[in-house]
Amino acid sequence: xxxQPYQPPDAELTHVDDGTRGRAFRDATTLTRTAxxxxxxxxxxxxxxxVVYLVQNIVLGEVVAGMRDYDDTPFALxxxxxxxxxxQLLVTxxxxxxxxxxxxxxxxxxxxxxxxxxxxVTPRWSVLWYFIPFANLWMPFVAMRETWKASAAxxxxxxxxxxxxxPLWWTL
Length: 172
Known about the structure:
172 residues; mainly alpha; elongated
């Protein structure tokens, strides 16, 4: 039994001659852990930003109430606002990049398991669909559902059932 569903199979994969030659299954453990860590870092930086902006609201409330002069805004608060904003930006960009790499790797592995002819979305398009207006409302969901189905039942992707969490994930 595997504790991680995307670890490489123990046996050598048997490929049908359908264009999948050269598509070796590649371990995604490091990408998965990195993406998880970055998602947690995004949550942490967002929580820090909330705290900083709550303090900012308090200070601005004091300015409006006349209890504090605008020029007396603590310099540390300004530094904290800029620091959390910059940190949030950097962590978010890193997260987008790593999750894009993770999506590509998952689709690549699904292709190596199921074969190219059984799947309609390529690894490249599983990422690119997120950047195409209007198509990004539906196609990333299709790519993720197909990747899941190909990973769960590589010999019968068309009739495989996707996990019920996938529509919930896309809705949220």
